[in-house]
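Example record used in the benchmark description.
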Amino acid sequence: MLVRDLRRLLLVVGPLVVLVLLAASLWHPRTDYVRSRVGALLGSKSNPWPARPHRKPTLTANETHYEIYSASTADGKYFDIRFGVDAYNPNIIPHQTFNNTWHVVAQLWNDPHSNGFAQEFHEVGCLAQFVNDAMMCIGFVQNVSIEPTPGGKCEGDITYFSLNVGPHDARVFYGPDYPLTIYGSNSGFTCFGMWIQDFRHLVEGEYKPTSNGDFAAGTEIHRPGTIRPVEKNYFLFWDKENVMHVHYDIYPKRGFAKLEPDGSTGPELATASAEQDEKCLNRYLPKMPPELESIHQATNSLKITLCNRGEKDCEPNDSNTFILTIIQHKTFYDFHGEYEPYVVLFRQRAPFELYAISKKPLWFHGRKRYEGRRTDMFYLTSVNWRDRGVNYHGYLDDVVLLGFGVEDKNSAGLDVVAGDLLVDMGFCDES
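Model output (structure tokens):
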């Protein structure tokens, strides 16, 4: 009886499903969109990342960088992120529910010559999957609903910042439990500040966060001591007890403090390790000329244990577990910005002193050099664990997704084994 009823149900429902899929395929020109979206909704567990032989980092021909390779693209090159619109400085985080599906968020490109400085700025996002060596949206690209903030404290050469409407250069990342975003916007304390919000409140219908949780609405992050007219590039980190901190600056001096749920902070904590930190920074990072070059924070942070997941003796502790972030050395010659990424590790417990810094910057396979100084401008914004459920803390053999802007207009990414980021590190306690 039950079997007969099921057969009757299939006779009715089956054609409807076929019609829906046919309509979707006619409406959407990419058949891989339909296949991917249905797979995500049905919870397909097939791995979209092809298994490739591991390509270890190699020293570039001019011996200035270490070249790192994609763990899954056929040629080892970075992959495009295809929004269908011009968007740059992307972030990639795994969806908390769907298999093999990621949130991608980036800055919508504005033509700088269209409306002068009086422009609205938007972060856009979609659900995406890895298909044919590219990360592509499987749903509509929509504005991320970050509320604009009022300005009015911009004076002198930066008065025009008051005309800004909307967020800039958001970072989307996981903490130990759930995703967050930090972004730049008009400040209530200075001209332009950094704000934080629970990302789940910005993705309509995807999650059900508690209404009274931390950072349910956009919250401006305070800073102890002197605050600059324009603040940018903050990142959060969580210590061994999962206490949240905000890191303001890395060079020439570090700045960080404990962050409270209302955006306020405790006292400056970087002074406790300042002397040894500055020695390490000066030892491994390039020497800065008076102008046209700088070093600044770039990505969010991750926690990493320096052994492989599942190894018998791989137990996280203070001697093998660190906070990882990536900073960038910027040059601006011939009116063209170029950015070279360096990995930084620091301790997960107070005083959070620096542990190691890349001796040479990383080169993403596929980036091109041109005659003279010029190379492709890659601006790294995001480093997140690729796989769902890892959240903030991973291991050497886990894969990370790097997100970066290309020439301030397009988006790309690179999936790489985390251990490959740590090639040829310079340790701060080396004599």
